[in-house]
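Sync notes, pocket subgroup
Present: LS, DG
LS reminded everyone that the earlier model was apo-only. Rerun requested with FE2/S2 (inorganic) cluster included. Inputs:
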Amino acid sequence: MTDDRSKDEETTAVPDTPHVDQAVPRRRFLDNSWKVLGVALVAEAAWTSYDLLKPAAASGFGGVVNAGAVDDFIEEGSVAYSLNGRFYVTQYQGGLRALYQKCPHLGCKVPWNPATGEFKCPCHGSVFNLIGEYQSGPAPRGMDRFPVTIENNQVIVDTSAFVEGPPPGTNEGPAPGPTGTSG
Ligand code: FES
């Protein structure tokens, strides 16, 4: 009986723990694992830093702004303000213009006045017509504007760089006056 049990123990015995000569590959494995982990951590840190520091795709002022559907700008003489983009989109004879709200004189925000049909700067009184052309006051030129494109029936305004407004004396737009437009 005892002999049988010892036979069973022999056949089901747990393999011996590794000898010293088997510990060397294990140590090497652990060393390599630490190196791989270290490289992974550095890569992760680099990616996280890049993710935080990379320039974000701008969708507000300074980048490309969707001003809305073209259908929102079909009314003749309409003026729509984009708070996000800091510009007005005006419609005149089918043409859309995105006028920068910043006065070309000293930079005050220029509001649209639908009652008088003009943009009038509250700081020193410069006046511009519906399409931002200079009418009077100390401003050196018309209101600056941003490039406008139509994409998929949307009015897209690129506010990354403005184009200087036309010089005084340019009068292709309507004279100021009540237009019954929204502002
Ligand atoms: Fe607009 Fe001076 S800042 S007129």
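DG: Residues 20-53 form the longest helix (34 residues).
LS: Residues 103, 105-108, 121, 123-124, 126, 137-139 surround FE2/S2 (inorganic) cluster (CB under 6 Å).
Action: DG to write up.
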